[in-house]
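User: I'm curious what two different proteins look like when written out as structure tokens. Can you demonstrate?

Assistant: Sure. I'll show them one after the other, since each token string lines up with its own sequence. Here's the first protein:
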Amino acid sequence: MKENVETFMAFDKDFNDANIIYFGAPYDGTVSFRPGTRFAPEAIRRDSYGLETYSPYFRLDLEKDTAVFDAGDLLLPIGNREKTLELIYGFTKRILRHKKIPFMVGGEHLISLSSIKAVFEAYKDLHIIHFDAHADLRDTYMGESLSHATVLRRIWEVVGDNRIHQLGIRSGLKEEFMFSRNHCSIELYRMDSIEDLVEELGSKPVYITFDLDILEPGLFSGTGTPEPGGVTFREVIEAFKSMISLNIIGVDVVELSPNYDQSGVSTLYACKIIRELVLAMNS
């Protein structure tokens, strides 16, 4: 792999020296309301330079305290969902073969399925922490089984019962909430259970899938399916602080749709969440 021409700030370490491989998956082919997440990886890289590399929350610096390689964006075929998922799966497998951590930025939430499939094949005791406004547990959506509205149901079919832990959920069908209570774990509206969850998981391998629409849309409007009643950035930081002992072996951050927030603030939220999550992983 070669370094991307335009990198996320400080994600410019040599591939061989890096422990985290950052890459974009600009796909939004199943978005049901407001498309545009395909533009997120480029916007995030560009706007990341509006932030400092140092985080006062973790007292760490991306330049000095992390080793991240930005591999650029995958070239995904427009209109071909299955091929897109195959390419994401194959790229994640390449990263794992080098004993490194994949950090994928979307794009819509369906892309998580491929990355988690690849990680699960390497870590059979995998658990998923799912930050989101939406349960994403429908069996089908508009007759389709592969959708950003069904992605966690498809992931459950991969990892099985009691491996998916949902936080901040405040939207979904009644059947989705019932399914989660029977097959996953779910905390509605908040993330207060994160400390107990971290203690429960111990050293087990964990994949973080972070849908940015968990944030209150009054603060973060740049997403395809905004849902009132969300969490604040400060609450996210406190959750990340609780997670520093986790054995995180894969991450994705999805569902920024930058063109719905012309102020650019939503993109900066995404940039800062990526910065803090990487630093939490290196704490």
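Here's a second, unrelated protein for contrast:
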Amino acid sequence: MTRCSKAAVVLLVDEQAPPEHERQVHRKLGERIAQLMGIRFLEIDEAAMIDPLALYYLPARTLIGDDRQRELGIYTLDDFFGGLVSQPYMATKAISHQLLDGATAPPGWAADFARLARDALLRGFTVFSVDDALRAGRRLLEDGPLRIKPVRATAGRGQRVVSSPTQLAEALDNLDSRELAVWGLVLEQNLSSVTTYSVGQVTIAGLTASYFGTQQLTHDHAGEEVYGGSQLTVVRGGYRHLLAIDIDPVVRTAIDLAQRYEAAAFQAFIGFIASRRNYDVVHGRDVQGQWRTGVLEQSWRVGGASSAEVLALQAFVEDPSLHQVYASTHEVFDNLPIPDDAVLFYQSDDREVGQISKYARIHDNGYSK
């Protein structure tokens, strides 16, 4: 059992409630985190009777520093599962690129981040107005197709590849200027023949695990290509423990770039803390056919790989001699039977995404089919 000074785990909700399938997954994660910590999981109404400072929180999103966070006593890694930043845009992929010269920027924009993380990124721009988006897009199109990425969308939804100024203008035509001014939009060079790697680290009650893995895509009921799960190799300890195992050179590069990106965040964003840190790193060919690798975005909140992360931590707690495990997550848009060794986190007909099954597995002997 891990060390713990908290009395219970509770979900932290806000006015923008996540979809039902995500709420149920978060609840299952909260229950398992409570087991891992050796404490109770409580519903919101039950937790109201306990001192907020004695609770461990599981937020649905990255926290934006405010008076509520201080009242709850969320100050350190031991207080919550996720991340805390000072400005809204810092919670999204908007941080991953520089602004154009003379471009509009929100309050608190940390220009140092893109400079510090430059070597870990693909070519691209973050914009906070339609005019800047048009300028940035035209510049990127000089070197080939670009990808437009809404910064608050998840699972790859809402992205669009454009190859001409006309397509660019059409794609930007219906943007909400108020949403854009607060959260931003990313325009980034598009790669082909891509593999997306996940690199991350999670800490709960003093126990740290680090991992790398690959993501799989699937199709939802509307036919859109979306996140379908991850296969992770997880080690006990920090990134140096991860780099100590036998890994492919491309994976080693992905881990190195994720570390550079993360170091830039800790240096550029005052007050940034995160007990769960996940980075999507892409490897693919540019329009000239050259191989490129770069960090696409961060996830400083509960995410698609979190069920595998928590199962891996539980495995480390149950067996102190264990130093490496293989864990996977799966999101399947049907209700087929799941494997006998899987832990089911959700299976139902969700009103927003339709029939979906979400489960995770520990693989004792790697990923043999």
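A detail about the second structure: The two ends are 32 Å apart (CA to CA).
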